[in-house]
Amino acid sequence: MVKPSLRREMAVLVVQTRQISISTACAAFNISETCYRYQAKLSSENALIADWLIRLTTNQRNWGFGLCYFYLRNTKQFRWNHKRVYRIYRELELNLRIKPRRRLVREKPEALAVPTQINEVWSMDFMHDQLADGRCIRLFNVIDDFNREGLCIDVDFSLPSERVIRSLEQIIEWRGVPKVIRCDNGPEYISNMTKEWAEQRGIKLDFIQPGNPQQNAYIERYNRTVRYDWLAHYLFDTVEEVQNFATAWLWTYNNERPNTAIGGIPPKHKLAMAA
């Protein structure tokens, strides 16, 4: 089905080349004469919106319309209507291609509890990647499930139980002690050293069932954001480069990047609203 804007263009072309009347051309292409004579009113704001969208999608290639709109609305405080922004977004052909997935019939997992206050539940997990020379590195991620705030990203070639405990202690110094920490069954978490430390601190370690990563969905979704926002975009030569980039990105994630899971605002904004 041909859109009215294209039918209008065809009618204009026919009038100019075939020398027929406007009314005849409009009748032939099923458009009104008002549509034929309409002249779009250009707005300088449209150019500004287009410039912002192009810059956002260039710097954040995995951001779709939702994140772009929330960033402009909630972080930059622009009051543009979402329909207007979406129209320009589509005209610029910035929309991401959604890869269809095969739907597998699975048992419905137990719903995750939604924390109602800060430090009620933390989640922690590891990620793996490689440097430019092929050496493997690990990333230790911790978030607060209440506002999805990233609490740390530690990077090294090896992160045993001692490093995990040291990282958690550093977070506790400025954040406070959590009631529960959710994690998988990795050797660093199930070790006696980690269990003894948690008992001394009065922290419950909530282990998910083996083979059910959806039970740790908050940190798994966060890991995906880490990988597709920056980790998969660059080649790093040293662990120090990865750590410095991760630290800078973590500040942007917590303070500026909209999070659709908490209403399109950055994690720090939700924390301020709950204070």
UniProtKB/TrEMBL annotation:
List residues of the Integrase catalytic domain: 111-275
Pfam families on file: rve
Enumerate the Gene Ontology biological process terms: DNA integration
Any one Gene Ontology molecular-function term assigned to this protein's record: nucleic acid binding
**Record InterPro entries:** Integrase_cat-core, RNaseH-like_sf, RNaseH_sf, Transpos_IS3
List the NCBIfam families hit by this protein, alphabetically: transpos_IS3
- The protein depicted here goes by the name Integrase catalytic domain-containing protein
